[in-house]
Amino acid sequence: MAHTTFEAATAPIFSAGTSDAEIEATALKAIKRRKNLVLFWQVFILVAVVGMWELSSNMHWIDPFFYSSPSEVMQRLYEWATQGTTEGSLWYNLWVTMEEALIGFFAGSITGVFVGIGLGRNKFLSDIFSVYIKAINSIPRVVLAPIFIMIMGLGLPSKVALAFIMVFFVVFANAFQGVREADRNMIANARILGASDWQVTRTVVIPSAMSWIFASLHVSFGFAIIGAIVGEFVGARFGIGQLISIAKGTFDAAGMYAAILLVMVVTLFAEFIMTLIENRLAKWRPQQHIDTQ
To answer: What is the structure's pLDDT at 40?
Structure first.
């Protein structure tokens, strides 16, 4: 067998007289040891990549003009944080981007969930609107940025609209599929017990689709950030996308990488928050087994 469960892997080390407490303690030690090993390799890979980048730039194995270096990137971030940017405070520009992304994320997520569940539960409406949804979904969303800016201007609404579109279709598709994948036997049993359509949706279908919905939410915030930044890149007065555009125009490689690094940190933090929320709301799900290999 290619993979073994934790129980199978650890079973030979226990004798017949081993207590449950000793088995549990050994299992917890193995889990902690694996987490530490994963963390070690994550840190090692990060340090190795950053160190090789810095060394390659200092030794001119790569052109520092185009690739900059980690030290230059951190220096640029420090300058932006302490002295501001050419477009004002770094924190204000970051807040503008986050505001656009957050509004688009929540609006797109909520709408996507409601529309996905609604059409997933109503086959007649899904058959009517499916062709229109497929047609709109086939359009590369980033090309809508100039249209939104032309219609709504350079301010907040155009960036929110693009972030909304980026998020909506991801969440909608997962919510719709999650509803369609709901356990038919559980739905039938609920109906036999006299549950109404709303009760079936609320108590059976939505919990069944939650894993699909949360899977989409994990990636959709990143899409919201992309939508906001692309909109700012095309045309804006403030925002991280505008900083990237200015850095590109002045051939400031360190500035471009600094802005990208800032976005990565914010997105990873949002992913961490999303994971905490998911773990809190989905405690009913069984824990996945631990693969020790």
So the answer is: 93
Residue whose C-alpha is closest to residue 117's, from 165, 168, 180: 180
Domain segments of the chain as ranges: 20-62, 82-282
pLDDT score of 126: 84
| Beta carbons of 226 and 164 less than 8 angstroms apart | no
For residue 22, the model assigns a pLDDT of 74
Q: How many CB atoms lie within 10 A of CB 68?
A: 22
Long-range contacts of 267-274 (CB under 8 A, 24+ apart): 267/221, 267/222, 267/225, 270/221, 271/218, 271/221, 271/222, 274/214, 274/217, 274/218, 274/221
- Fold for 82-282, please state it: MetI-like fold (1.10.3720)
User: Mind listing the pLDDT tens digit for each residue in 157-208?
Assistant: 989 999 999 999 889 988 888 888 777 777 777 778 777 777 777 777 888 7
Helix (H) or strand (E) holding 174: helix 156-180
- What pLDDT is recorded for position 213? 85
Q: Which of 191, 263, 240, 200 is nearest to 93 (CA)?
A: 240
Q: Give a three-class secondary structure readout of 249-277.
A: HCCCHHHHHHHHHHHHHHHHHHHHHHHHH
Q: Given the structure tokens 């036999």, which residue do they identify?
A: 192
Q: Which residues of the chain have pLDDT under 50?
A: 1-12, 14, 286, 288-293
Task: Give which of 168, 177, 169 is closest to 117, Cα–Cα.
Answer: 177
pLDDT of 8-17, one tens digit each? Answer: 444 445 455 5
The dihedral built from the CA positions of residue 94, 95, 96 and 99, taken in this order, carries a sign that is: positive
Q: Which residues contact 258 (CB under 8 A, 6 or more apart)?
A: 73, 74, 76, 77, 80, 247
